[in-house]
Write a structure and sequence with these properties.
Distance between the termini: 64 Å
Order of helices and strands: HHHHHHHHHHHHHHHHHHHHHEEHHHH
Strand content: under 5%
Number of strands: 2
Strand order of the largest sheet: 1-2
Helix content: over 70%
Shape: elongated
Radius of gyration: 24 Å
Length: 477
Amino acid sequence: MASVGNGTEESGGGEEENFEDAYENIPMASKMDIKCALEECSMALNLFLNNKFSEALEILRPWSKDSMYHALGYSTILVMQAAMTFEQQDIQMGISAMKEALQTCQRFRKRSTVVESLSSLVSKQSVDQLSEEEMHAEICYAECLLQKAGLIFVQDENMINFIKGGLKIRTSYQIYKECHQVLQMTQGNKSKNETYYQFEGGVKLGIGAFNLMLSLLPGRILRLLEFIGFSGNRELGLSQLREGASGSSLRAILCTFTLLVYHTYISLILGTGEANFQEADSLLEPYLQKFPNGSIILFYAARIDTLKGNLEKAQLRFQECITAQEQWKQIHHLCYWELMWCYTFQQNWLQAYRYADLLSKESRWSKAIYVFQKAAILCMLPEDDLKRTGEDVVSLFRQVEGLKQRISGKSIPTEKFAVRKARRYASPQPVKLILPALEMMYVWNGFAIVGKRADLTENLLVTIEKEEAALENETSK
């Protein structure tokens, strides 16, 4: 959400101390125009990226009902918190905050948009009449709608919420399209100022993210969505996000994070192509320089190291990320997941088990996957090591089916896979899974990472051949 070089912190050593002093001496504004709002939100963003999550909320809270940017920033942090914890109380709090943010943004939107079609925004006459404040209100409203839709999807299992969320996403997309047209019609204006570039950054984030994410859907579904007005042009999405990330707007960091998620997760898991590590490094480097202890920044740096096969370096960075802050334990859970896989790739099964065990006890994201993963890793241990853990593998596999969840009435594919596999242990005479941890590694496309290291690949081959020989011996008896 912010430019790396936005001037909110002094350069050189002691940046964090200078920034904190500045925060402590901020007087309470008596009036909040867009310029002041953007400055305060930039300060809150810097606090957030420095792991000062509560302080960021405190800056945004006083004006969250009177300033569209404070409302957006405040509710966005609460939505992130809800997505991290998956607790119903936090999800409800996030939805309530986003509802208030939508009401705040609505007050600043062009009045005609309440009763007229959004197409009225993009006639030449209406664009000329559209105030700076109204332009920003549209883009903030679209962001709030999109985030609220995301929370509605995970709030409950029923199809009604799925339809409600879908309608909100469509409205958000339509607003972004209209704003993009407004942007194109005002490109030639000579009177561009900082707030105009902030609006431009918001449009690039929305158009870029929508096009990129929709392009990842299966062709049949994408053609249907394009028929009802959506667009899934991957190259357009990537170019818009790159332009947004290189800009100086509050949304620059969000464009950067969207690209990082694409390069470090989506392209690997969905198999959409080779991850662009060079671009990921160049996107992250300025933020690593500015926020060297920022947990979110450290997490992405460690993830990139993992994908390159630098597992030992990645493990150290994930540990740095864990020790960097204590407020949001869920960031620790992200690190536990990654550390579990790093040790799995190295076949350090006891350490991998340790992190799978922590996830199964502390995180609510996917209990079924965590318990299955824990049991799968335990299957890889020698009998003596397994006994020392005190765990009952059969009992763990039998728990998996009861832990599966549904989002908007739909099962999660990886959980369905885990449940099917775990059913082999449901009968009084369980049917043993063969190398289940390696099978899950295949499901998550982990062999693409192992393939970067000849030593790890060779070790895995030895393990597979050893199990193959054992199976042959059993069948020949």
